[in-house]
Amino acid sequence: NFSLKQLQTMDAAHHLHPFTDHKDLREAGTRIITRADGPFIYDSEGHELLDGMAGLWCVNVGYGRKELAEAAYRQMQELPYYNSFFRCTTATPVLLAQKLAQIAPEGISQVFYGSSGSESNDTALRLVRHYWALEGKPQKNIIISRHNAYHGSTVAGTSLGGMSAMHDQLGGAVPNIVHVMMPYAFELAMPGESDHEFGIRAAKAVEDAILEAGPDNVAAFIGEPIMGAGGVKIPPESYWPEVQRICRQYDVLLMLDEVITGYGRTGAWFASQSMGIQPDTITTAKALTSGYQPLSALLVGDRIAARLVESGGEFYHGYTYSGHPVACAVALANLEIIEREGLIERVRDDTGPYFRQVLTERLAGHGIVGQVRTFGLMGAIEIVKDRQTRERFPGDGAAAVVVRDHAIAGGMMMRATGDTMILSPPLIWTRETIDMAADRILRALDLAEADLRK
Ligand code: PLP
């Protein structure tokens, strides 16, 4: 057993962390999470934290599920690994594919596996371009995405994504990807513009990009139904139906990235079902296994899958761990828990509406809160200096970091992204957990306001 200090020293010496300022990390010292149970995580000092982020938007069934450990153990003993290349497969990826076809939106019945959301988006990008090549239209290869989108950290994921800081460090993006405005009314709606009007205008940006490139050159549009890492940006209701209509009009494929919104978070298996969107591909990962194993599944619509099969010839793409038998066994057990415990219905009918009610009633009127928005069990709290004008505190997101640090010190794990605090808790949260979270967030907001207005 190593002490906290020893682990921190080794961490500083050898471990480069994702999305981390290492100078800052060295100064602050790494927190070591040692165990977790239900909705709580615990660090090496014994602090208990309510996990408002379900890890990284993934631990939907909560921590400490022995069933999932047992599913992995059983599969590892029986057959730890075999691939699904050269006309082989193991059984669990097949069973999982069948299950996914059953819960996927209509018109989607095929699955391509990877180990992460990023890999899955790489697959999606290559697959839609391959589709159009098979259709005899190889020039139809431009993908339209949105500013501030997050689609992963691989070169393709970063290129599809719209985060400027990531692009700046990329040193050469995948070509033929263009970015249009995001449907973020809080900052981008014009004075007097209704949410509905703004949603139509944001969708029109997609049409403008299609027309500028020429519809014969545009393969697909990609978007998160609700932008997650970009700040839980919930589009106006008018947005997705209009984007869908535009894609159909110009024969542009619709790719949804449901890496965060998939598997219950919005009160349906997929946000496309909550929002009535009919995509051609759905990228999923994270909560597919509730994070207990790395696994992603690209759900592929029948139009693309049929062309792939009918055309014959190899799709030169795949990963060693595509359809990993252990990860798929865990996913099957995880989906079974979600179903058996009625977690999706609970989010839809009970905890989702209660989450909105409590956050709105208790936090939306706070002195440094400009807006609270939720969808299912996703939430965002906009931190502002002036509630009327929506002016932000100086320092580009520094204020939200102050809130976050107070939240964590007070036992509430949540994330700051830009000037927005975000929440994406496990779906096992009850009304009591939501009340507890609201208490802790309120305290953090009070303490942060006192600091920020000093
Ligand atoms: N797409 C979205 C919407 C995500 O939120 C993420 C990760 O947060 C990814 C893709 C990338 O997934 P991964 O980190 O598993 O590669």
From TrEMBL:
Q: What is this protein called?
A: Putrescine aminotransferase
**Gene Ontology terms, cellular component aspect?**
cytosol
User: Care to name a GO molecular-function term for this sequence?
Assistant: pyridoxal phosphate binding
- Do you know which Pfam families this protein is assigned to? Aminotran_3
Q: What is the species of this protein?
A: Aquamicrobium aerolatum DSM 21857
Q: Which UniProt keywords apply?
A: Aminotransferase, Pyridoxal phosphate, Transferase
Task: Name the family the entry cites.
Answer: Belongs to the class-III pyridoxal-phosphate-dependent aminotransferase family.
From what superkingdom does this record's organism come? Bacteria
Is-annotated flag, keyword Transferase?
A: yes
